[in-house]
Design brief:
TIM Barrel, single chain, hydrolase activity, acting on carbon-nitrogen (but not peptide) bonds, Amidohydro-rel, transmembrane helix, binds 2-acetamido-2-deoxy-beta-D-glucopyranose, alpha/beta, Metal_Hydrolase, 28% helix, Urease, subunit C, domain 1, 27 helices
Length: 943
């Protein structure tokens, strides 16, 4: 530039050259300016390498947030599982009946199954080239049923604790945080205990994969994770995960990887959380909150709105980035929030959302929210009233959700009161994908299969029932590309069963997870031929239609007749006091006023009675009515609604016993109520009598025996007003075990004048002790001996619960103490129960078969009022699992004469009989259609 100035100044006197010089000068100036401008432009359009990387990163992130979740396209080209472990030896399962879950659950392939490197590599006819040269384990299935491993869509396994050991932070185990209602940033993985007793039990029932959800104490409980249920060599929670999302280690992962499904649960219900707890560090109780549905609704909207704002800011950012408006983004970063990122992903449709929701009022809110904020719902859980509102569910944004249900666990709270055993079949016929789930440990995950089998019994088609615990939940969790099917390229999770999986008490012979056998020494015998095909289930079309018509509360009272004739009867069980006898093929049975007047050749009687109701049992049986002990039937209607129940009795150990009670025991008969839904459902399922004790800790009071079919106490309701005196002794109490036993001793040796207590002291009534620990039972045997030695009288004692009683079975037999097993499906809820006997396939003996073998007088009861109706299946299960040591008559005795004897019932039990159509009492083919009631002098009909 300086040169030109010089030229300009020094050579202006040459006029002809001046013109051209000026011209040159101008040109140069223009050129220089252009150069300057283009240099600037260059730098503007060619940013630094760091800036370039930053922009590329953002563009990649912007592409990533729009990429749908799912497996990579070449997923099935894999030749080895990402979960492969060398313990998985090449395995050939020969001669199997393989239910693949293909063709809508109707495909069955007869042949072999090849498992290699954690994957299924051949189904049916295996090419010899695939196995040649392999050191292969051969399993001969002998024609047994083989299915994919079971998938539990709703479990709290590992976050809840079995046995319960949570520092007594009541309700505050790792299932729930009680810090706030909205907690989408919490992760169930952070609380996953790898040493929970539930894993082995769940595996032994064929469950191979489970979604571990945070609990239901919140509106948004947190992120769920999918685990496989085998032990890993690494022994960590993380190594149990199946396809965990990349967000696991933070939000700054490689966005070139295809996104994987994430999982979360939200809960819409009336939340009453009074479980604030004192932490061990002495902090104040954390927040205690109670919310109406309106609060809950707003909590959701506020949370989703927060996430929506962040999502919109991200989308704005990306729109600018994609348009190249980097100058506008010069000072901004991608809008992110570690707290809200998971909920933002819900709005982006990248989260398989599980919504815990029962009632129409709540389902309505969720469907409305899903449309307001535009997010899909993968599955509604519990979903008690979904069968009543199919049109609403179809409006869920993003398509029809799966519905995850219990088979029969209803009525515990208002929102579950209208639940129906027919919901699965009704929803399936409306086209919804049906999932049966455990909510472990609400239902022990080991019996997930039993949920599907019950739904099948009540009318869910066979293919849909099997899909409901395999492919359908796998799809609902976004893992349908690798689990829930038997197909080449899928994970080697397969079960070899001992019978058709929908038959009663089907049990795995072996369980493979990632190709690794899980049962070390399976103790299981193959079930009889009749159990090798799906049960031919009864017709419940009318009951299902009624469930809908009456919105979940169909009338349950029977229709009564005086005279009835049963035809086509294949067996008739009767009893005289303690003896049960069976008459085979009586064909017809004639009943007048609740009494059998003829069985067998009855033509004369039948011609006598033109007005009799004729019931064709289609080869079914007439069997003794069962007696239920354990559930608070008759004292509880809706367990979590205090106004519907008798309530809890005072605990004398707390010292606040009102003086007016003096030393009298509380009597269950005084609080008895009839006509409850659990009571009538049990009656309609063959349970005709109940013995119930008052509910309480330590001294419960005096139990009563009553008729389930009675309309009230004054109409033949009572069988024996006072049966036994009940106490509970447990480590799980605010008072020491030694204090409880000392108090019991004082009660027995003391002066109190209560009539029932006096009968116990005199040896004419039974003391029933609710107890589980073998050590406490041993102390009680000592107390019995002490009492008898000191007073020279007999102390009649029975243990109820008694889950560890096999450990001292011969001592119990020797002491003449009876046992009522109330958990025929054992689960170690508390420390007192940890040394339970698993039964097949974990141990050859069940608790009941072990006690019978030791000569103990054993009865069977149950715990929960909803399951009272399942009593016949529970005793039948024990028989089926006993390898022939428990026959049907013994099974029947367990729930009739044995349990009555153990309780010390003194009166003659009413000779009630139950008629089953199409099958017997001991499987999934018979349908209870009538009670022949000697006591009421009538026949009660259910159809
Ligand atoms: C699957 O089977 C169920 C029950 O048999 C049936 O209702 C349904 O329509 C079938 N679905 C398809 C896609 O075939
Ligand atoms: C498969 O097992 C069944 C049942 O044990 C048996 O009858 C059949 O012969 C077996 N088939 C083969 C090919 O081994
Ligand atoms: C991060 O998470 C992935 C699963 O998404 C896992 O495979 C990987 O090992 C983790 N990385 C680290 C460093 O823990
Ligand atoms: C079942 O009983 C038979 C003999 O009655 C016995 O050979 C077999 O080992 C038993 N099976 C199991 C699993 O205990
Ligand atoms: C556990 O805590 C609750 C509430 O603080 C208390 O009522 C209960 O007695 C405690 N249980 C034991 C075994 O200490």
């Amino acid at each position: 530039m300086g040169d030109y100035t010089w030229e300009q100044a020094g050579h202006t006197h040459f006029s002809s050259r001046r013109k051209s010089r000026w011209f040159r000068l101008c040109t140069l100036i223009i050129l220089a300016s252009l150069l300057y401008l283009s240099r600037n432009l260059w730098f503007r359009t060619h940013p630094s390498t760091e800036e370039l990387a930053r922009r590329a990163g953002y563009l990649n992130l912007c592409r990533y947030i729009k990429t749908p979740s799912g497996p990579p396209l070449n997923f099935h080209a894999r030749s080895k599982s990402d979960r492969f472990s060398p313990e998985a030896k090449p395995t050939l399962i020969k001669n199997a009946t393989i239910w693949t879950s293909g063709k809508n659950g109707t495909e069955v392939i007869y042949g072999d199954l090849l498992l290699l490197k954690g994957l299924i590599r051949g189904v049916g006819a295996i090419a010899p080239s695939l196995v040649s040269g392999l050191d292969i384990e051969v399993v001969d299935a002998n024609g047994a049923w083989v299915t994919p491993g079971l998938v539990d869509l709703h479990s709290h396994l590992g976050v809840g604790s079995a046995p319960e050991l949570d520092g007594n932070q009541t309700g505050a185990d790792d299932t729930n945080s009680v810090k706030a209602p909205i907690l989408p940033w919490l992760r169930s993985l952070d609380g996953l205990n790898t040493h929970d007793d539930g894993y082995e039990l769940a595996r032994s029932g064929g469950v191979t994969t489970a979604q571990i959800l945070p609990g239901s104490a919140n509106n948004i409980g947190g992120q769920a994770f999918i685990i496989k249920l085998r032990e890993t060599t690494e022994r960590t929670p993380s190594s149990m995960l199946v396809e965990p999302p990349y967000t696991l280690n933070g939000s700054h992962f490689d966005h070139n990887l295809p996104p994987r499904w994430r999982h979360m649960n939200t809960i819409h219900t009336y939340q009453k959380i009074e479980r604030g707890f004192k932490s061990n560090t002495g902090e104040n109780p954390s927040r205690v909150y109670s919310m109406s549905r309106m609060d809950t609704g707003w909590n959701f909207r506020q949370a989703y709105d927060t996430a929506r704002k962040i999502r919109d800011q991200q989308d704005d950012f990306c729109a600018k980035a994609e348009a190249g408006a980097w100058r506008e983004l010069k000072d901004s970063t991608f809008p992110e929030s570690l707290q809200w990122e998971a909920l933002v992903d819900v709005l982006r449709g990248r989260v398989k959302l599980s919504v815990h929701c029962y009632e129409a009022v709540d389902l309505d809110v969720i469907v409305r929210l899903s449309n307001e904020f535009k997010f899909p719902v993968a599955s509604f859980h519990h979903a008690g009233q979904t069968y009543l509102v199919p049109d609403l569910l179809r409006k869920t944004w993003g398509g029809m959700p799966s519905i995850a249900l219990f088979a029969a666990n209803f009525r515990k709270k208002r929102e579950a009161y209208r639940g129906s055993e027919f919901a699965p079949r009704i929803l399936a016929s409306d086209g919804f994908p049906i999932v049966m789930k455990s909510d472990h440990s609400v239902i022990n995950s080991r019996y997930l299969l039993h949920e599907a089998a019950q739904a099948h019994y009540f009318g869910l088609p066979t293919n849909v029932a099997l899909l409901s615990i395999t492919a359908t939940p796998a799809d609902a969790m976004g893992l349908g590309h690798r689990i829930g099917h038997i197909e080449e390229g899928y994970d080697a999770d397969v079960i070899v069963w001992d019978s058709h999986p929908l038959s009663l008490a089907a049990t795995p012979q072996q369980v493979f997870i990632d190709g690794i056998p899980q049962l070390k020494a399976p103790e299981v015998s193959i079930k009889p031929f009749a159990f090798q095909s799906p049960p031919n289930t009864p017709d419940f079309d009318k009951e299902a239609a009624d469930a809908s018509a009456y919105q979940g509360l169909p009338p349950l009272e029977p229709r009564s007749v005086q005279h009835s004739i049963f035809t086509n009867v294949s067996s008739l069980y009767t009893r005289s006091t303690d003896d049960i006898s069976v008459q085979d093929y009586p064909q017809s049975v004639i009943v007048h006023d609740g009494k059998i007047v003829c069985s067998g050749e009855c033509s004369r009687h039948s011609s006598d009675d033109k007005h009799a109701e004729i019931i064709n049992l289609e080869g079914g049986s007439i069997v003794l009515g069962l007696t239920i002990y354990g559930p608070p039937l008759g004292l509880t209607e809706i367990r979590l609604e205090p106004s519907t129940s008798d309530g809890t009795v005072f605990n004398p150990l707390t010292g606040n016993l009102p003086a007016i009670l003096e030393d009298s025991l509380i009597r269950a008969i005084d609080g008895l109520q009839f006509g409850g839904r659990n009571t009538l459902l049990a009656y309609r399922a063959g349970v005709t009598a109940g013995v119930t004790a008052p509910s309480g800790s330590f001294v419960q009071g005096s139990s009563t025996a009553f008729s389930l079919g009675a309309s009230n106490l004054l109409r033949n309701g009572s069988i024996q007003s006072d049966v036994a005196v009940h106490v509970a002794i447990t480590k799980n109490s605010a008072h020491s075990v030694s204090t409880q036993i000392a108090a019991l001793r004082a009660m027995l040796l003391g002066k109190g004048s209560d009539a029932m207590l006096s009968s116990v002291r005199a040896g004419t009534a039974t003391l029933v002790v609710d107890v589980n620990s073998a050590d406490i039972m041993a102390s009680l045997l000592r107390l019995k001996r002490e009492y008898e030695t000191q007073l020279g009288k007999t102390l009649r004692m029975t243990f109820a619960g008694a889950i560890e009683s096999h450990l001292i079975a011969s001592d119990i037999a020797h002491a003449g103490v009876s046992v009522i097993v109330t958990q025929p499906k054992p689960f170690p809820t508390t420390w007192d129960q940890r040394r339970f006997l698993g039964g097949p396939p974990l141990t050859a003996d069940s608790l009941v078969s072990a006690l019978l073998a030791a000569g103990v007088q054993v009865g069977v009861g149950l715990q929960d009022e909803f399951e009272a109706r399942n009593l016949r299946w529970e005793v039948a299960r024990l028989a089926l699992a006993s390898n022939g040591t428990i026959d049907q008559t013994t099974a029947l005795a367990l729930a009739t004469v044995n349990v009555e004897k153990a309780l010390g019932i003194e009166v003659d039990m009413p000779q009630d009989l139950v008629a089953y159509k199409g099958g017997d009492a001991f499987g999934f083919e018979g349908k209870p259609v009538a009670v022949i009631s000697a006591q009421f002098g009538r026949t009660d009909l259910f159809e």
